Amino acid sequence: MSMMPERESTLMDGSRVPHALGGLLAAAAALATAYAASSVGGYGPWPVAAVAEEVIDLTPGPVAEQAIDLLGGFNKPVLLGLIVLTVLAAGVWTGLLARRGVGRAFPVVVVVVTLAGLALLVRSEADPSYLIPLASGAVAWLLTLQLLRGPARRASDGEDEGRRSLLVALGAGGAFVAGATGIGWLLRRTRDHLEETRELIKLEGVSRPRVPAQVRVDVPGIAPWQTPSSDFFKIDTTIVSPAIHPAEWRLRIHGMVRNPMELTYDDLLDRQLSQGWVTINCVSNEVGGDLVGNAWWSGVRLDALLEQAGVEEGADALLQTSHDGWTCGTPLSAVTDGRLAMLAVAMNGEALPIDHGFPVRTIVPGLYGFVSACKWVVDIEITRFEEFSAYWTQRGWAEQAPVRLASRIDTPFHGEEVAAGQVPVGGVAWAQQRGIAGVEVSLDGGAWQAAPIGGSPNKNTWVQWGMVLPVEAGEHTLRVRATTLDGEVQTGVEREVLPDGATGWHTITFTAE
Ligand SMILES: Nc1nc2c(c(=O)[nH]1)N[C@H]1C(S)=C(S)[C@@H](COP(=O)(O)O)O[C@H]1N2
Ligand SMILES: [Mo]
């Protein structure tokens, strides 16, 4: 007969159970964090779903058929469930490994995250940002392990205090998991609903984009002349794009006007729509960068609206405000001088994508986005620049920022190895409002030579340029510069993007063999 224990022993004493529970919770926290982060939008699919799709792709046909026979319509939920269970099991394992330091669990977390990362990145539309949810999940996993390790150890040593703090920690962790999952679910549902609404919108008067005949230069590797909306750069200060139902959208036009207005989405659509090709740029684009895109925009001209609003003498600015509170200041002259400045409702022939400003954004050819291209625009005040300072201007960026003349080499890319001989080179150049007259390249610092350019339907789009250069074997440097129709030759002086846009010649090196 054994001695009576001094106090009642529980399941937790001296056992691995507290550590296993800690690990389980850590994996659950990782899953919930990754789910919430992937629901924010723009960070790609839910990693578990991406893994499931990869599993389906890799499963031999007959096995998949049997699974479908057996499980019927449940095969996908079952697969998702199995993946979640596998991760939770890995979590238990990491909890046990972490007894002697979280570092020991690290390799397991790395393996899980790497497998999920591969599943995300093999997708055709994959983007490095898809890894953000995974990285946040990994951090949540390791952090939870670290936080629960102490209480788990004390609980397994049989300390009452340890058991209590383990229970508190497990409760807090459970609440976090529930909260993150709930937020992720809400974000997803809101966005999915809005996306359905968006896709059902029929925009009369919006025509499908037709790429003009002579814009393409026949050199492979140049950015497509029309940027597909799905590849269009996205820049804004939001984490979650505003979800604005078009029926609820209102735009106030007020300030120094005789007839202040409030417009609904239908009011806009009832008006005459104008359309055109416009290339827009971000001021943060480094020389050679890709924060620039060319699309077919449709919308209501701002000059017509302002004419009706009756702008008062002395006004020189539009203070635009977005649904999320972001602001930008646009020169009144830029929207009334006849250029195609508009409240855009469509991009590339379809209702604006949510991330690009749905339901309505502003487009002003020739100005950087931060002083003109207000997405989710809800308020335009006609005023004077001296009366306000807009979001980025308060943060050190310029008040006025016309797009700078620029050119870019797309092919070869920097560091590429090409076959010596006749090497195709090409890229794009832009100078909205002024137009590109010509592009020149210089190989290895030699004389500038003219490169043929493609056509453009107006002065507001970029042009493609391209040619074939005879290139000997060895290392080479290629640079490009453009000239505007009004005679400005692109400067080689290098300037930072701050405060009003970079300058300098895009220069790359490549090797010919
Ligand atoms: N509401 C809102 N609109 C915004 C911004 C923003 O942060 N918030 N950023 C601007 C900037 S800096 C740029 S470059 C363009 C980018 O537009 P895109 O994301 O459609 O390419 O949007 C502009 N409009
Ligand atoms: Mo920007």
Topology of helices and strands:
Layout: H1 17-39, H2 47-58, H3 61-71, H4 75-97, H5 106-121, H6 131-156, H7 160-200, E1 250-255, E2 261-264, H8 265-269, E3 274-281, E4 292-301, H9 302-309, E5 317-322, E6 327-331, H10 332-336, E7 342-347, E8 350-351, E9 361-363, E10 377-383, E11 406-411, E12 417-418, E13 421-430, E14 436-443, E15 449-451, E16 463-471, E17 474-484, E18 506-512
Parallel strand pairs: 1-10, 12-18
Antiparallel strand pairs: 1-2, 3-4, 4-7, 5-6, 5-10, 7-8, 7-9, 11-13, 13-16, 14-15, 14-17, 17-18
Helix pairs in contact: 1-4, 1-6, 1-7, 2-4, 2-5, 4-5, 5-6, 6-7
The chain binds ligand MTE and molybdenum atom.
Keywords:
single chain, 513 residues, alpha+beta, five-stranded mixed beta sheet, five-stranded antiparallel beta sheet, globular, disordered N terminus, binds the ligand Nc1nc2c(c(=O)[nH]1)N[C@H]1C(S)=C(S)[C@@H](COP(=O)(O)O)O[C@H]1N2, binds molybdenum atom
